[in-house]
Design brief:
Elements (H helix, E strand, L loop, with lengths): L1 E6 L4 E6 L8 H18 L3 H18 L9 H12 L5 H9 L3 H11 L26
Antiparallel strand pairs: 1-2
C-alpha cells in the first residue's frame, strides 16, 4: 500500500495504491483500506510515522535534482515549478511545507479530504496467462 499526490495549476489528485498478494481479492482489501483511513481520521498517525514519511519524501525530492534530465529529473522539476507556480526555484518552499507536517495536520487532511463519498476506485485485474493449445489458434 502506498499513497501520494500531485498538485497542478487547476487541480490535483491524491492516490492510494493497494496491490493484493497472490490469492487475495479486491473485496478482501477494501475493508482493510477503509479501516486504515478511519484510523487516520480518528487517531491520526504517530509522530514516528510522520517523521519517517517526511524523511522519505524530502530525500526523494532532493534526489530528484541529482538527475539532470528525464521524467522526474532536475529539468522536469524546475519546469513543473515554473509552469504551475511561476518560480523554478520553489523547491526550498516545497521542502518547508513537508517539514511543517505534523500528526495533527495529517489527521486533519484525512478528515477533510478522504471521504467515502468523494473517491474514484479503479480495479485492475491482470489478464489470465495465455497458453499454447494443442489445436492451435487463438486462446
Amino acid at each position: 500500500m502506498s499513497a501520494g499526490n500531485a498538485s497542478y495549476g487547476l487541480g490535483g489528485w491524491f492516490q492510494i495504491t493497494v496491490t493484493a498478494a497472490r490469492g487475495h481479492t479486491i473485496e478482501e482489501m477494501r475493508p482493510v483500506v477503509d479501516q486504515i483511513i478511519a484510523d487516520l481520521q480518528q487517531e491520526g498517525p504517530t509522530r514516528a510515522e510522520v517523521e519517517r514519511a517526511k524523511r522519505n519524501i524530502i530525500a526523494n525530492q532532493l534526489r530528484s535534482v541529482e538527475r539532470i534530465g528525464g521524467f522526474g529529473g532536475r529539468a522536469d522539476l524546475l519546469n513543473h515549478y515554473e509552469t504551475f507556480l511561476g518560480d523554478p526555484g520553489y523547491l526550498p518552499h516545497d521542502i518547508a511545507r513537508y517539514r511543517a507536517v505534523t500528526p495533527r495536520s495529517a489527521q486533519d487532511f484525512g478528515r477533510k479530504f478522504l471521504l467515502p463519498s468523494e473517491h474514484i476506485e479503479l480495479d485492475v485485474i491482470p489478464a489470465p496467462k495465455r497458453t499454447a493449445s494443442a489445436e492451435g489458434g487463438k486462446q
